């Protein structure tokens, strides 16, 4: 019965249930809380991943003992902090952010979390930065969370830059409910889903926003 309900799009997660679940499984320490609350406090868009999604990213990185990771779309550094903490010893995370103000807030939050030597915020447009970043690879994981209309191009770069067995991760894979819309951005997101299947073993985890997970085929 539960499975049939979930196939119809029915969810049992109310805001109250989610708040309880997150208190149990993802309690925020002060540095995480600071980064999570920063966008609202600093007048930036509050579009960071949810606490459960941040923890999901961290646990997935730990499963593959990730040491070299790239994130596209930093905002205030919340997901970067969750992932940076999950890296194996000596690991590095490079996170790319277009908006100088977001990058500055993220750097301060990352420093406050004690991750200044682990996480590097690169300021710039992701498509301009990626080819230069490729020399740091191959990467154990890439998390895509920047402008949605470029996901197909990010996915093609990721297919070249991730090691066999490494992870492709992408948030907002339902494209805010518009995945099947007749727009260029929705078509790019659909291409991202379809093309990622060629190089990765994939699933779209049904988080509220849709979290695409792929394991690079060998
Ligand atoms: C959804 S937010 C990232 C949230 C962050 N990953 C987190 O969960 O804490 C998307 C970010 O991508 C940035 N962005 C948008 N277009 C970009 C581009 N072309 N290159 C790099 N960053 C971009 C935005 O300025 C915004 O800060």
Question: Can you give a write-up of this model?
Answer:
This protein has 218 residues and is an alpha/beta fold. It has a single domain (2-216), classed as Rossmann fold (3-Layer(aba) Sandwich), CATH 3.40.50.150. It has helices spanning 2-7, 15-25, 30-41, 51-63, 78-86, 100-112, 126-133, 151-161, 184-199, and strands at 68-72, 92-97, 119-123, 139-144, 162-170, 200-205, 211-216. The mean pLDDT is 96. Residues 47-49, 72-75, 78-79, 96-99, 102, 125-126, 145-147 line the site of S-adenosylmethionine.
Brief overview, please?
The chain is an alpha/beta fold and 218 residues long. 45% of the residues lie in helices and 20% in strands.
Bound molecules: S-adenosylmethionine
Describe the largest sheet: 7 strands, mixed
When the domains are counted, the total is 1
CATH superfamily, by name, is Vaccinia Virus protein VP39
Tell me the number of strands. 7
**Helix coverage percent of residues?**
40-55%
Average pLDDT metric: 96
Uncertain segments = none
CATH topology: Rossmann fold
Strand content: 15-25%
SSE string, helices as H and strands as E: HHHHEHEHEHEHEHEE
Write the layout of secondary structure elements.
Blueprint (H helix, E strand, L loop, with lengths): L1 H6 L7 H11 L4 H12 L9 H13 L4 E5 L5 H9 L5 E6 L2 H13 L6 E5 L2 H8 L5 E6 L6 H11 E9 L13 H16 E6 L5 E6 L2
Parallel strand pairs: 1-2, 1-4, 2-3, 4-5
Antiparallel strand pairs: 5-7, 6-7
Helix pairs in contact: 3-6, 4-5, 8-9
Bound molecules: S-adenosylmethionine.
């Amino acid at each position: 019965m539960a499975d049939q309900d979930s196939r119809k799009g029915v969810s049992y997660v109310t805001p109250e249930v989610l708040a309880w679940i997150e208190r149990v499984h993802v309690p925020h320490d002060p540095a995480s809380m600071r980064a999570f609350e920063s966008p609202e406090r600093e007048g930036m868009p509050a579009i960071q991943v949810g606490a459960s999604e941040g923890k999901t990213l961290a646990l997935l990185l730990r499963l593959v003992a990730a040491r070299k990771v790239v994130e596209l779309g930093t905002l205030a550094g919340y997901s970067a902090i969750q992932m940076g903490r999950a890296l194996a010893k000596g690991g590095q995370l490079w996170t790319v952010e277009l908006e100088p103000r977001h990058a500055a807030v993220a750097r301060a939050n990352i420093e406050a979390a004690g991750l200044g030597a682990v996480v590097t915020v690169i300021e710039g447009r992701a498509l301009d930065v990626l080819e230069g970043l490729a020399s740091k690879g191959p990467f154990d994981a890439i998390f895509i969370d920047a402008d949605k209309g470029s996901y197909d191009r990010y996915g093609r770069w990721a297919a070249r830059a991730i090691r066999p067995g490494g992870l492709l991760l992408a948030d907002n894979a339902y494209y805010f409910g518009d995945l099947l819309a007749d727009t260029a951005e929705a078509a790019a997101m659909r291409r991202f889903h379809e093309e990622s299947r060629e190089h990765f073993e994939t699933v779209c985890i049904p988080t509220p926003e849709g979290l695409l997970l792929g394991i690079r085929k060998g």
